[in-house]
Structure of Bifunctional purine biosynthesis protein PurH:
Amino acid sequence: MARLALLSVSNKTGLVDFARSLAAEFGFDLISSGGTAQVLKDAGLPVTKVAEYTGSPEILGGRVKTLHPRIHGGILARRDVPQDLTDLENNQIRPINLVVVNLYPFEQTIAKPDVTLADAVEQIDIGGPAMLRAAAKNYAYLTVLCDPASYDAYLQELRQHNGEASLEFRQECAIKTFSHTSGYDQAIASYLRGQELSQHYTLEGTQVQALRYGENPHQEAVWYQSGAIASGWAAATKLQGKELSYNNLVDLEAARRITTEFTDTPAATIIKHTNPCGVALGDSLVEAYTKAFNADSVSAFGGIVALNHSIDAATATELTKTFLECVVAPGCDADAQEILAAKSKVRVLILPNLSAGPKETVKVIAGGFLVQAADDVVADTHKWQVVTQKQPTPEQLAELLFAWKVCKHVKSNAIVVTRDRTTAGVGAGQMNRVGSVQIALDQAGEKAKGGFLASDGFFPFDDSVKTAAAAGISAIVQPGGSMRDQDSINAANDLGLVMVFTGIRHFLH
């Protein structure tokens, strides 16, 4: 008796050619459901509809069609268990040798901006995952394919092994299938859960590429894509340059997060080891980049650059004047591409939607992992509290807002000194806040005079305020909340500083 293949797919890419090879080259009988059967029939292929095979019509508008003993018995039967074979014979069930199923496009549906809950729920596949899981469980006796990209590999297996797929191949397909159904369920759970963190949290991804190594050459690393639809860096277009490394991707994400703080005004960020060495706003993109570069030109060498506007020729010319690892922007003009091509090793990426990012952050610890909501609170100066006698001007308040936005993305303890919407000094990751203040002020030098200082956490003592004033700082923004806040306020008043409390802390570890 001819072998039996069950085909029921939402994504019909490559379906007809694959089915034709199964039938003509390897003698498979084909059974299929719904739209898949119609496509095969229209292509002139011999196909039996599932309803005809089971003797049970599709019901509930197609919600029930493959949930039947003649389907699942044929998938789950163990060919070396006599009772299983007897059950098949007594119930006129043929063993199924190949299951080809991919699922309703749930993730594609929920990605639509106007999707309703009812639309999303209707795209939750039931019969598909049931068949996939059954076939994957019984991989010792049949093959399951959940991805059109596997069709050619399966046909090649049959050609190389006298019409049979090897056990190793079947097992790999089963593993891929269980990963696929797990990710599908996770997407549904995440959508229904919304922004709330639930009792269960699952991480699932599909490999984008194996990276050369991790943070160091002795560490293995792989880049995974979340979900079925490529987004973020997995959806970015690389115009030129070498393959992305682990460290590139980590730094690119840090640069992206800072740059998304600024929308309309041209902005440039230069990152080294996840911390900004230069961030600036300008009247033009080239001005913003030039200011960011000059903020710390030594550290900018070999940096990661993120721009919030499309790269133009003038900006491209400046970008080529120093060695950079990566540049990312929402677009790139044709003239700019030609200029950047002169630095062929620089990785240039286009990410149209820089603002789209994860809603949670995940950190792995021994025996588990931690999940927290993303720190995506929007700074609102109307909710800030001016705690000093001296009041900020609108221009000063705007500069403090710039410094605060940058400080949010600097590793704690974090201090940022700015002038003219440009970082002048950055103190990152120090064990005490005074140390971060001193580093930022030393780096700023003369630019600290009349400058602005932001701190990601409160000042536990007034020493940082006094140090900032001695260097010439004119205004400070910090969360407030220390038991000794009044000491800092008194020091700021005595020294003629403006100080503003945000009421929000931005630790970053």
Summary: The mean pLDDT is 91.
